[in-house]
Amino acid sequence: MNKDILGKAVLDYQNGNYFEDIKTFSSLEEEDVIPVPYLFRVYKTMPDLEKKALKLCKGNIMDIGCGAGSHSLYLQKKGFNVTALDNSPGAVETCKQRGIDQVILADILDVKNQKYDTLLMLMNGIGIVGKLNEIDAFFTHLKSLLKPKGQILLDSSDIIYMFDEDEDGGYWIPDGQEYYGEVSFIMEYKGQKSEPLPWLYIDYNTLQRAAIANNLTCELVYEGEHYDYLAKLTLLGK
Questions:
Q1: Any coiled-coil ranges, and where (predicted)?
Q2: Does some domain include residue 195?
Q3: CA gyration radius for the chain?
């Protein structure tokens, strides 16, 4: 098993060795493809949701799960003090080669004693929580990284539409699943597969309840056309 499928793919692209995209297989029994060039998109080709998030960024920024670094690179060029963070060695090396000044190889939960004005989590950035029952501990940690008037900008999607609807308007959720937005992914690239990765898609109402329970305000700042949304979280009373 190769744990850094994404990193290998983006580093290959950065070094001119691109001829294959990333395949994904999910517990929703759907096979999909991540086009590697898309991870290197420039601002003008980014979705409106991402453009909105980047416009809301302020101060000292950490781009959590930065991937190939497209968001960090844009913010750096705009003059922001931005740190790109990822737990993928290949992604971190790609960011360095692309000219991003501050890059950290780490899991966000291992970052300590730092304070930021903006914590940016795009491309379903909240997905790294994995399981809904881990969100309280995750928010507690993120709050420790926020300046008093800091903000968390994150996007996700409500994937209830992917489940079959019954005659009463309810949905058929597989047995044993605590929350319908909990998905497991496997990525494949050049014949190598990753270990299963737990990934969370969270509907806005559930996110808002979790935020409030953790003394965070939660504002819906953008809704996309495909059940996706952008939210801004801030420390309550700040």
A1: none
A2: no
A3: 18
Residue 91 in contact with residue 3, Cβ under 8 Å?
no
Q: What is the pLDDT of residues 53-73, one digit of tens each?
A: 999 999 999 999 999 999 999
pTM here is 0.93
Check: CB of residue 215 under 8 Å from CB of residue 136.
Answer: no
User: Distance (Å, rounded) from C-alpha 84 to C-alpha 111?
Assistant: 12
Q: What is the CATH classification number for the domain harbouring 120?
A: 3.40.50.150
Q: Which range of residues forms the domain containing residue 60?
A: 45-179+204-235
Q: Total structural domains in the chain?
A: 1
3-state secondary structure of 72: helix
132 φ/ψ angles, rounded to the nearest 5 degrees: -60, -35
What is the CB neighbour count within 10 angstroms for residue 13? 19
CA 164, CA 12: separation in Å to the nearest integer?
Answer: 39
Q: Quote the CA–CA distance of 98 and 21 in Å, as a whole number.
A: 20
In a domain, 50, yes or no: yes
